[in-house]
Amino acid sequence: MTDTMDTMRRIVATAVAALLALTLGGCTMQTDSKLDDFRVEAERLTDDLTAQIAADAIDEIVGTESQARYGDTNSAEQKPTDPAWWQVYRTINLVSEPDASATAASAISDHLAADGWTEERVRETEEGRRIADGFRKDTDDGQWYIEVTWVTTAPEMAETIELTVVSPETVRGDAD
Q: Model confidence over 22-36: pLDDT tens digits?
């Protein structure tokens, strides 16, 4: 009976030790985020798309915002496992020539199509004068999304183009 009790104690002690190790190990588990890699790729893609526009058609790159975005969670606390992705937004003023925006959008669309991106019209606003085309591409890391917003030539509208590049989802990791 003593041997049976000793064996049972060892089994229970081993189970408790294993459970404790799993519980504590889960608390210190490193979360593998790809945000840094996605930032580099999103910024590279944005520069590549900008390079598709004829240099003499660009009046000014008005601004570029490049930042991590974080998804909804069930807690106000920021956790390494929170959903996250990288997004770059760039606005470009083009020269005031008819169809400058449409020409730039077409060059970008052709470039993306040649690289295997699928295209779809996302929306038309301002009575069809402002058009957004979305492009998607699946990679080993997930699906990338690019939105190219352009305008049709109209007397009261500046010739502009807006680029938005969105990485696949990852986790927050150690990002602040």
A: 444 444 444 689 999
